[in-house]
Design goal:
By secondary structure, the protein is mostly helical. Helices cover 63% and strands 3% of the residues. A hairpin with a 4-residue loop joins strand 2 and strand 3 (66-68). The radius of gyration is 20 Å and the shape is globular. The N and C termini lie far apart (46 Å).
Length: 353
C-alpha cells in the first residue's frame, strides 16, 4: 500500500505530513509521560525489525493476479501500545522510503497515516482493547479465553484497519485530482483486494501474538491472567532471541520467495495483464498521476539516499541483494527504533519500590 509521489498533489501530501507529524508529536509526549519500563526496549526493537522484514514478503492472492504484504500496525500496538507502535511504524516507513526507495518521499506522510495510524490507534482503541477486556469466550482471566480473544482481535483488527487504509488511498488520490482514477471504480478494486490481504495479515499477526502470549503474556497489552495461569513461560530474553531469529529467516531467506505479482495498490492501478489477468484501471506505469516540482525534488533526494533500491543491488539483479536488504534493513530499523526511544527518554529504568 506504499503510495508513490505521482499519486498525490503537493497540497494533499503536505496535509498528510501535518496530520502524521502531529500524531507523532502527541504520541511522543504521551510516551514520555508514561515512562515505560526500559526492559521493553529489546522487544520494541525486534518487533519493529520483524515488521520491516515481514513487509518484504508479498504473498499471492489466489485468482487475482495480485499480492499483499503485512502492514504491522496491529502487531506493534498489541505489543508496544499505540503510541510506541506508531513511532516504530514511522521508523520502518522512513527507512524503507529513504534507503530502499519503497514509497515516495513526498507521499511519506500519507503512507504513515494509511499504514500506521489506523492499525495503531483505531485498531488498538476500537478493536484490540475492547475485545481483550471483554468476557468473550468465558472468564476474562482464563488462558483459553485470552488466546481466543487474541486471534479474533488480530483478524478483525487487521481486516478493518486495512480497509480504512485502502479507502484513505482512494480519498487522497481523488482529492489530488487524478482524473484517470474514478472514485467509485477505484474503491471497487481497492476494498475487496485489501479485504483478502487483511485476512491473511490477521492470521499472521494472531500467530505471532499467540507465540508471545504462550511465552510471556505480560508483554501483550490488555492481557489479564491470574498468577497461577502463567507458569512455565519462557524468559523475555528467549522471546527476543526467537523473534530475532525469525527476523533473519524472514528478511534474509523467505523474502527470496516473495510473490512477483503487483501488490493491492499497484494491481488496482495497473492490473496484471501480462499474467493473463485484468488491466483494472489500466494506467501507464511509466506515465501516470500528478507531476510537480515537489515530487521531482523528492525523487532526486530518494535517488541519492537509496543504496539498495527496490531491495536489490543497484548494479545487478543478484538474489543476494534481497537477502542483504532484509538483514541490513531490519538491523537499521532495530537500531533507529532503539535510538529514538533512548534519546526521547520514553523508556526508563524503573526504581525498585
Amino acid at each position: 500500500m506504499h503510495m508513490a509521489d505521482a499519486l498525490l498533489a503537493p497540497a494533499v501530501a503536505a496535509t498528510m505530513y501535518v496530520a502524521s507529524g502531529a500524531t507523532a508529536g502527541v504520541s511522543a509526549h504521551k510516551l514520555k509521560k508514561e515512562d515505560e519500563d526500559s526492559k521493553r526496549l529489546p522487544v520494541m526493537a525486534v518487533t519493529a525489525a520483524l515488521v520491516f522484514a515481514g513487509q518484504m514478503i508479498n504473498y499471492t492472492i489466489p485468482g487475482t493476479g495480485s499480492s499483499g504484504h503485512m502492514c504491522g500496525g496491529m502487531l506493534l500496538s498489541a505489543l508496544l501500545g499505540p503510541q510506541a507502535g506508531f513511532l516504530s511504524m514511522i521508523v520502518i516507513l522512513a527507512i524503507q522510503c529513504l534507503f530502499f526507495g519503497d514509497g515516495g518521499l513526498l507521499a511519506l506522510g500519507a503512507n504513515v497515516w494509511n499504514m500506521a495510524f489506523y492499525g495503531c490507534f483505531v485498531g488498538y482503541y476500537l478493536i484490540w482493547k475492547p475485545i481483550m477486556r471483554s468476557n468473550w469466550f468465558g472468564k476474562m482471566e482464563a488462558k483459553a479465553a485470552q488466546r481466543a480473544k487474541i486471534i479474533v482481535a488480530s483478524v478483525i483488527g487487521c481486516i478493518v484497519t486495512l480497509q480504512l487504509g485502502a479507502f484513505s488511498v482512494v480519498v487522497e488520490t481523488s482529492l489530488s485530482g487524478i482524473t484517470e482514477l474514478p472514485f467509485g471504480a477505484f474503491c471497487a478494486l481497492m476494498q475487496p483486494i485489501h479485504l483478502a490481504i487483511g485476512l491473511i495479515e490477521g492470521l499472521v499477526t494472531a500467530a505471532v501474538l499467540t507465540f508471545v502470549f504462550e511465552s510471556r503474556p505480560e508483554l501483550l497489552k490488555e492481557v489479564n491472567l491470574s498468577a497461577e495461569s502463567v507458569s512455565g513461560k519462557r524468559s523475555v530474553k528467549t522471546v527476543v532471541v526467537v523473534l530475532a531469529i525469525a527476523v533473519c529467516l524472514v528478511g534474509g531467506i523467505l523474502s527470496l520467495f516473495a510473490s512477483s505479482n503487483p501488490d493491492g495498490l499497484e494491481w488496482a492501478l495497473f492490473g496484471n495483464s501480462d499474467a493473463g489477468y485484468s488491466q483494472n484501471m489500466g494506467l501507464d506505469e511509466e506515465d501516470y498521476g500528478v507531476s510537480s516540482n515537489a515530487a521531482d525534488k523528492a525523487g532526486q533526494i530518494q535517488e541519492s539516499t537509496a543504496f539498495l533500491p527496490d531491495y536489490a543491488f543497484a548494479d545487478n539483479d543478484s538474489a543476494a541483494g534481497t537477502t542483504v536488504s532484509g538483514i541490513v534493513g531490519s538491523a537499521m530499523v532495530a537500531a533507529v527504533a532503539l535510538g529514538v526511544c533512548v534519546l526521547g527518554g520514553f523508556f526508563k529504568k524503573k526504581q525498585k519500590q
